[in-house]
């Protein structure tokens, strides 16, 4: 399993518009070959920075796969106007999150 981590710096006054634009193009991402899920998370200390984590079956499904597709071009063209800087993208290899017994409480409970 591969995780794509994209750090997306968004103009502070465009956060709401960015969120809507992202939701509008999610179908372009979710129909990509090898797509296994994603989360778009907004920073707490830096709310103008979003982290997009996409789970892919393989690195090749993301790059060159999705990145070379027309869907990627449409995906990026819809959201890139909201970036205050060039996004940073890197990949991690690993399994799924481990299940825990702490879902409804803390470790001390």
What is the fold's blueprint, element by element?
Layout: E1 2-9, H1 15-30, E2 35-42, E3 49-56, H2 59-65, H3 70-79, E4 88-93
Antiparallel strand pairs: 1-3, 1-4, 2-3
Task: Kindly describe this structure.
This protein has 109 residues and is an alpha+beta fold. The chain is 30% helix and 28% strand. It contains three helices and four strands. The chain has helices spanning 15-30, 59-65, 70-79; strands at 2-9, 35-42, 49-56, 88-93. A four-stranded antiparallel β-sheet has the order 2-3-1-4. A hairpin with a 6-residue loop joins β2 and β3. α1 packs antiparallel against α3 (70-79). The longest helix has 16 residues, at 15-30. It is globular. The N and C termini lie far apart (33 Å). The mean pLDDT is 93.
Quick structural overview:
The protein is of the alpha+beta class. The chain has helices at 15-30, 59-65, 70-79; strands spanning 2-9, 35-42, 49-56, 88-93.
Descriptive tags:
4-stranded antiparallel β-sheet, 109 residues, 30% helix, globular
Cα separation of the termini: 33 Å
Strand percentage lies at 25-35%
Mean pLDDT: 93
Major sheet strand order: 2-3-1-4
Which regions are unreliable across 5 or more consecutive residues at pLDDT < 50? none
Strand/helix succession? EHEEHHE
Count of extended strands:
4
Category by helix and strand content = alpha+beta
Shape: globular
Instruction: Please count the helical segments.
Output: 3
Radius of gyration over C-alpha positions, nearest whole angstrom: 15 Å
- How would you sum up the major sheet? 4 strands, antiparallel
- Helix percent reads 25-40%
Say what oligomer this is.
single chain
């Amino acid at each position: 399993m591969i995780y794509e981590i994209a750090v997306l710096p968004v103009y502070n006054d465009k956060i709401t518009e960015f969120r809507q634009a992202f939701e509008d193009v999610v179908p372009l991402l979710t129909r990509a070959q090898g797509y296994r899920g994603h989360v778009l998370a907004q920073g707490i200390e830096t709310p103008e920075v979003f982290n997009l984590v996409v789970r892919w079956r393989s690195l090749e499904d993301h790059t060159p796969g999705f990145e070379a597709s027309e869907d990627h071009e449409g995906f990026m063209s819809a959201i890139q106007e909201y970036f205050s800087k060039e996004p940073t993208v890197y990949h991690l290899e690993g399994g799924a999150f481990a299940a825990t017994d702490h879902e409804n409480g803390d470790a001390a409970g």
